[in-house]
Amino acid sequence: MSETKPVKYVNTPICVDFDYTPGKATSNFLRSIKKGQLIGSVCPDTGKVYCPPRSYSVETASPMTEIVELADTGMVYTFCIVNIKFYDQAQEVPYVSAYILLDGADLPIMHLIQECEVEDIRPGMRVKAVWRDESEWTESMENIKYFKPTGEPDAPVGEIMENIRSKSHA
Amino acid sequence: MRDIAIIAFGQTENKRTERLLNEAEMIAPVVGDLLKSVGLKRTDIGFTCSGSSDYLAGQPFSFVMALDALGAWPPINESHTEGETAWALYETWVKMQADEEIETALIYGFGRQSMGSPREVMTLMNNPYLEAPIQPDTISQAALQARVMIDKGIATEKDFAEVAVRNLKHAKSNPLAQCSGDFDAETLLKDPTIASPLRKHDCPPITDGACAIIMAAGDKARELCKRPAWIRGIEHRIDVQALGQRDLSECPSAKLAAEAAGVSKGKVDIAELHAPFTPQDIILQKALGLGDDTVINPSGGIHQGNPMMGTSLVRIGEVANRIINGEADRGVAHGSQGPCLQQNIVTVLEGE
Amino acid sequence: MAPDQTQEVALRADHKLEFPYVRATGPILGRFFTEIRDNGKFVGIKTSTGRVICPPVDVDPDSLEDLSVEDMVEVGTSGVVTTWSWLSEARPKNPLDKPFAWALIQLDGADTALLHAVDAGSEEAMSTGMRVKATFIDERKGNIHDIACFVPED
Hints:
The complex is a heterotrimer of chains A (170), B (352) and C (154). Chain A has 170 residues and is mainly β. Chain A has helices at 24-34, 157-167, and strands at residues 9-11, 14-20, 38-42, 49-50, 66-70, 73-82, 95-102, 109-113, 126-131, 144-149. Chain C is mainly beta. Chain C has one helix spanning 26-39, and strands spanning 13-19, 22-24, 42-46, 52-53, 72-75, 78-87, 100-107, 114-118, 131-136, 147-152. In chain C, strand 3 and strand 4 (52-53) form a beta hairpin. The interface between B and C is large, with 41 and 42 residues.
């Protein structure tokens, strides 16, 4: 053999196939988003609205049976600017990932912010979902391409988050 | 040593496939019912520990999502073991020995094998350089062990089938059992082998399920439960991983764990063995020193359900329940993980 | 509008969990794979009590001392089947894509066994104690896949 360098490494890739099921609450969320609708579940003890919905309250373990529809508008709670591509990354850099608190929800969801300069993004900035064409909607969060600024005055982020925190049982 | 007992055990029905619920949705009702049964609130629990496997769940950090089931607010005192849940119970026992402020604990385990192929997923527990890349499946590995027993004259294929017959018969009285019924060994032996000499009845079912146990210390246990199942010994040991370096007809680690846990210090009324494959049941009876006066696997053992990584906790729970309800005075629960009974944990439980 | 929450069937999706691991072999397993790749030979490792372990290990199970490349010794490419199982349907990524036997193979000169596949044609051709020899692939890369399988020795 021509190769004479001693072996120091072996490639041992792992690949396992799954027939994945996301559970009851997430299935209902994904079915709703296929219809262009965002939903949340309401904690019967704290009144907090969780989006995406869960079947049991994260804070009290009570069953959450009340489902509410949420707006596709909200505010930026926090964000980060990504400048480095990671493995298998589809998004062009730089891009902005943000926690967005939808109007009516008490827990932020993570999504992209586009159609604005990265340096202009700030907590409290009002944003709205930009949807794909209805013909492309599936049971996927990707039905929303990204969120973009609405141009409305900023929301009082500190006050809003404090209000949410006060709903938690001590 | 602090006296620590198991005061309650619960599990979901053992199902071949749970298509509707996710892990958190399976666990939450089990834990909720269990707390209610002993009159505790979730906030009364001093320590929480779980067992699961990310490869089985198909997602990294699956235990983080499972925590959604607990109402873990304000932030709770908790931990997790990546593996079989009997080891989470062991960690809890150690933690309760070290921290006297902890009076009660919750241990839960879960697995949804149906989403993946357990035979492929479990190959990942083998040596990642030499074995995992060529994917020796669990059934084939257990078959290598079975062959050694046959070659050494320790057991026959009929003996293996008799283990299945006994388990399936016992499972008839278990309302949550996945497989049960009356069979005879001669008929079972007419089935073709999957990996010779093993047939379908020698193998564990594929199960989706969740289970939970509540532990309590000293007077707290007596206050919450009429007849707690006291942990009189709990130990675990491990054998070398490579099958080619072991005498597969024996299980030295199970033997050492049983000795250290004090199995032989009294009569063993019942024993639940975590033997995924029937030949391993025979190996374990010998390693644990169990005699004819012990009822093996009154629940139906592995055949009643195999909610990996909860299976080992179910073994402990099934023994504890029979002590709590007065059916047995002293019992042994065994748990295992790794290829061909590599790691073994033995718990000795007693009523007062 | 009242959102739909009545459906009692979960969605499903194909999901692949993939990790592109690259593992350092360390000097001892590195030598094991190098010998297979370059010379089509197997090497084991000698413990303090004189046992030869193959595939080799980094730590002496008899003395718990670290072992080194100097402790490595050549073993045969043939050996004895110490136990086996006939797999009637090969699984994905197994060494063979037809029915075959998994076996523990104690190579000549070794005191422990290696887990690999035996291409024997039929279950009837398999027996404990039979002699088998290794076959290697042509384009060897220095990993376990360099061993094609074992075959019965003539």
